[in-house]
Task: structure prediction
Amino acid sequence: MQQIFDFFSGAGREVALLIVSMTPLIELRGSIPLGAALGMEWPVVFLISVVGNLLPVPFIVLFGRRCSSGLNRRVCFLVSPPNMRRS
Result:
């Protein structure tokens, strides 16, 4: 996590905290303690972390539907159609 923060720290603590909170698996569990370790105020850390955590959600919902419908058409070996099931 420190390497990620060092990479984005050129833009400022707030932007680095926003990027860390958008990173999968780290999210709020890593960004809130990171902001506290940087000496930032709790309300600012909480606001930036929550906004960064929620920012990718519309894109995930939008592109997730497209990906799942595409996968449903292509991956037919996982679930056989009802007319091909054996009784």
About this structure: The mean pLDDT is 79.
